[in-house]
Amino acid sequence: MSVDTEDLRQDFGEETLVAFQSGQYRALCDLMLRQLDRMMCADERKAAPPTPPPPVENHKPEAAEESSWPEGSSVPDDSGEQQVNALDLLLQDSESDLSPEHDEPATEEPAQSPDTDEKRLEASVLRIQCAARQQQARGKVNHVRAQKEQIENMEASALRIQCAARQKQARHKVDRVRVEKQQRVETITETDEVEPDSIDAGNETGGDQAEAAADLSEEMAVPESRPGTVMSYASDQFEDELEPMIPNTHVLGVIGGSSLFHAKSFSSNLVEQVVDTEFGNVVCHVGTWAPRAQGDEPPVSEAPTLQLVFVQRHHADPDGEYRQPRKINFRAIARALQVLRCEAVVGIYSVGSMTADIGVGRFVVPEDFFSPFDILHLSQDYDAHVVPELNTKLKDAVVQALTAGGFGPHDGGVYVQTAGPRFETKSEVRFFAQFGQLIGMTGANEAELLNELHVPFAMFSIVDNLANGIGAPLTLEAFKATQKANADEMERAVVHVLDELAGKKVLAAFASSP
Q1: 504: domain CATH number?
Q2: Do residues 287 and 271 lie in contact, with contact meaning Cβ atoms separated by under 8 Å?
Q3: Which positions carry the signal peptide feature in this UniProt record (predicted)?
Q4: What is the pLDDT of residues 463-506, one digit of tens each?
Q5: In this structure, are residues 237 and 295 in contact, taking their beta carbons and an 8 Å threshold?
Q6: How many domains is the chain partitioned into structurally?
Q7: pLDDT tens digits for 315-342?
Q8: CB within 8 A of 202, min separation 6: which ones?
Q9: For residue 481, how many other CB atoms are within 10 A of its CB?
Q10: What is the reported pTM?
């Protein structure tokens, strides 16, 4: 319903008309209220008319009343009615713009007292203000919703791009490793063809080359007992699904560190798989581990086997780059081992000894760990409340295996974890020696995360140095030399432990437990 602008100008003035045309309804209401106040004050002054003349026959009161007002002035009742009607028209017009479905035909009301008109005006002003604020609030809400939707779309696009990039990167790495292995096989084969006499005559060099070529050929061929896919993604985001482990066998997880950087036992007989978790991708090496009869003899076919999942913690990311202890994605590693259905996990560590009673080169199987400063967890709810421990059954099995192999392990002790990557000061070593005998940078993180996932876990370590301030002065060069010298012995001990665990079916006890 439209408002007669000419009536509005005549009744309330030019300023009121300008405010109405510019949409400034709050200023419009203020101007109208002030004009009405002035009109009502003028009406009150004129409410006491002069004494009327004596009554005359056939005199009409209405005519006498009209003649009592000066010429050119308007009758108060008529002007008040015009003002109310103009305000009603304005209010109906604003309400029709905001809520058209509630439009109702305007009804003409009789003139009312000044108090009633003032209340109606106040109510009208309040309704106009509320409608304006409501419309402004709707605009803000729509703007925020549009911004939020745009941000969500951008985040979803970024996530899809990251997933595709990781998938492509992992596949390129697998292709590169395959090509390198194939080139090594071809190179050794060509060398054998050039010197066949030396091989037939039992030449030691030729024999080594032939054996290396055979080993590499076995690497390139995937045995039937291994998972069929070279790489798969254990996630709903990808179409490739993880191949199930071989039935009627048990799955053991092994987390290796710097002491197994160059271990051939975990690179030549296992297949690389990239497992995707909510914490990131993890490179795992999966395959069948069969116990050897003795020494380096091939596995005995009748012997029981187990599925092995090996993770090199410092090189667990798909890019293959070295990660410092503080940068290792421990959460992703723990989740990947759970995804691959490991029934138990053994962590392999290079440690320092804080007591002269446990010397360099000694194998140690700790019974507990100490790490109260930076505790990791996976769950954000009640599942993170666990009682930490190193599994006693698994620890005893490792100790028995090392003892049977003649490695003379130290049974017990406490593993103390520090942040790294630097070595500890002498004062720090004296402090930590109050709580344990071994010191490292990674073991407690893996233990507490696997505890939260309810996966039995045990530690297995070798002492590569005496801690700073214990014995001879510690140098980085001496540490590296000792670690390199102990690497072969460490690999031999790990292989023997795995053979014993596979042959005695130790994991069957964990598989049957709830």
Answers
A1: 3.40.50.1580
A2: yes
A3: none
A4: 999 999 998 999 999 999 999 999 899 999 999 999 998 877 77
A5: no
A6: 1
A7: 999 988 899 999 999 999 999 999 999 9
A8: none
A9: 12
A10: 0.53
